[in-house]
Amino acid sequence: MKIDFNIVLQKATDIIDEKGLDELSLSLLAKELQIRPPSLYNHVNSLSELKQALAIQGLKKLYQYMLHAAIGKSGDDAIRKISEAYVQFVRTHPGLYDATTRFPNPEDPELQHHQQLIVDLVMQVLEAYDLQKEMAIHMVRGLRSILHGFASIEHMGGFGMPLDINESLSILINTFIEGIHSIA
């Protein structure tokens, strides 16, 4: 098999989604790719660079999940769908999501670009409520906090009570939406 950067990135994604971001090492990656560790340096300069690429890859995928969910939706329904997509992304790619929140270089213009795409998408969804720009930004922050908190607690196994977790998410998002209606 011919190895290129995309194959390296995909294998690294598989590893972190299965074992966690902290378990990723260049030696483990080389072993999984069935190549010698020095051969990896033909594709990546360092573990830090690889983690940065994983963060960017994660943001791209998260954006695609959310964008796909938002297509054809507006208002309350759009918020519900992008929220569900966000949580589904974390459920599907827990390691990749972790990489998006623990990136090594927040000043990277490519990383910032992909972060901004997600913010812009949520801002577009919020346009249905005619919020002032400052309030819309507060709502973006609030929604991200809710979704990140929920997804992170779920991933850590913190929701041990015998209640439907998706129902809890639905109630939480509906409460957020009611809050928007109360200020809009």
Give your account of this protein's structure:
The structure is a single chain. The protein has 184 residues and is mostly helical. It contains nine helices and no strands. Helix 4 (47-70) packs parallel to helix 7. It is elongated and about 60 Å long. The protein starts with a helix and ends with a helix. The model has no long low-confidence stretch (mean pLDDT 96).
Brief summary:
The protein is an all-alpha fold. It has helices at residues 5-19, 26-33, 37-40, 47-70, 75-92, 94-101, 109-126, 133-155, 165-183.
Task: Tell me the layout of helices and strands.
Elements: H1 5-19, H2 26-33, H3 37-40, H4 47-70, H5 75-92, H6 94-101, H7 109-126, H8 133-155, H9 165-183
Helix pairs in contact: 4-5, 4-6, 4-7, 5-6, 5-8, 5-9, 7-8, 8-9
Proportion of residues in β-strands: under 5%
Average predicted confidence as pLDDT: 96
The percent of residues in helical segments reads: over 70%
Q: Please mark out the parts with pLDDT under 50 across 5 or more consecutive residues, or reply none.
A: none
**How many alpha or pi helices?**
9
Distance between the termini: 56 Å
Shape: elongated
What's the order of the H and E elements?
HHHHHHHHH
Keywords:
0% strand, 184 residues, mainly alpha
